[in-house]
Amino acid sequence: MAVSRLAPSASTLSKLLLHPVSAPPFSRPFSGTAAGDDQTVLTIETSVPFTGHKIDPPSRSVEATPKELLSFFQDMAVMRRMEIAADSLYKSKLIRGFCHLYDGQEAVAVGMEAAITQRDSIITAYRDHCTFLGRGGNLVEAFSELMGRRTGCSKGKGGSMHFYKKEAGFYGGHGIVGAQVPLGCGLAFAQKYFKDETVTFALYGDGAANQGQLFEALNISALWDLPVILVCENNHYGMGTAEWRAAKSAAYYKRGDYVPGLKVDGMDVLAVKQACKFAREHALKNGPIILEMDTYRYHGHSMSDPGSTYRTRDEITGIRQERDPIERVRKLILTHEIASASELKDIEKEIRKKVDEAIAQFKESPMPDPSELFADVYVKGYGVEAFGADRKEVKSVLP
Ligand SMILES: Cc1ncc(C[n+]2csc(CCOP(=O)(O)OP(=O)(O)O)c2C)c(N)n1
Ligand SMILES: [Mg+2]
After folding, report:
1. What Cα–Cα distance (Å) separates residue 120 from each residue in 260, 268, 283, 297?
2. CA-nearest residue, atom 3 of ligand 1
3. CATH architecture of 12-362
4. What predicted TM-score, i.e. pTM, was given to this entire model?
5. pLDDT tens for residues 14-24?
């Protein structure tokens, strides 16, 4: 890692924090601009160079303020803690149904937010809890949704796979593999049509990358120069299938053929930020681009998968030791004397407390009312009728 200018020692930790841990984490959205008032700017090299397909890649040198590095550390640590807590809640049967955890992949959600604003849109698959937090969602809304409570971000009716925050440009949370990519291209179509000067990030996995609908959506997006960024979160497995067993070419950043692409270290939050900033500018001017984020999930595919039958424990431990996104930022903070190891430990302790408090709060929250069962299914007031199996006796007009 090459650094062109060292930061002076940080004055006090609290002065540097983007989201002071005394306030609820994520009480305001991530934004690179929020760190703009800091005097010191560090120039840090990404872990590995970017590799481009039909495009000159951006520079490896990324600018970051001490405040921004601390916010990256804190935001990723909150996400990690939330997912670990969700794991325990699932095992104690307080969360039921599907549940896919994101620990290991946090740098993608956080780095992406640092490069864009909430006027830009994001749409993703079912591994969506941390993307929701990144968009400014809070822990109580997240845990409530996981538990099917009324205070959840989808009113307790979506569950783990269907987190939404439309007012912050987050369009879910989708369970059908790959289906969110054409929807994302549709969002980008609207952005271009309304001359919004904004973009859509459509995220999908390496497994989804082999689907036909992705190429159909990409074709029309390229034809119409839509401002869409296809982000392949390559965690190297689709359920229990390793990428090499599923894909003839695992170079997902090249798979758009005529569409440019970039391969990015998705475990390096600064590389993600740099790539997303670059892609956003490209998409606004020229249309689609693919970002392949090389990342890793520590948990199994979902809670029913222990995650250790199709990969070795050594592989998981090796990634934790060599590439963990939180540890990478911890090292940067320590090297630049922005905060001490014990101050960082204190932040983590505080985060643990906040997560526990949020869990205690959601347990108080009621379930949705049965009258809500058919609400929010179709656009209100369209008079859509639902029939029972007999098509006669049970009949109601959906609210
Ligand atoms: C159309 C469709 N086919 C199959 C499934 C079952 N399924 C759920 S997740 C998944 C694997 C997807 O892997 P990937 O795209 O790499 O995403 P990751 O889970 O690694 O984030 C499959 C096959 C589904 N939900 N939808
Ligand atoms: Mg995958």
Report:
1. 20, 22, 12, 26
2. 177
3. 3-Layer(aba) Sandwich (3.40)
4. 0.90
5. 443 444 343 44
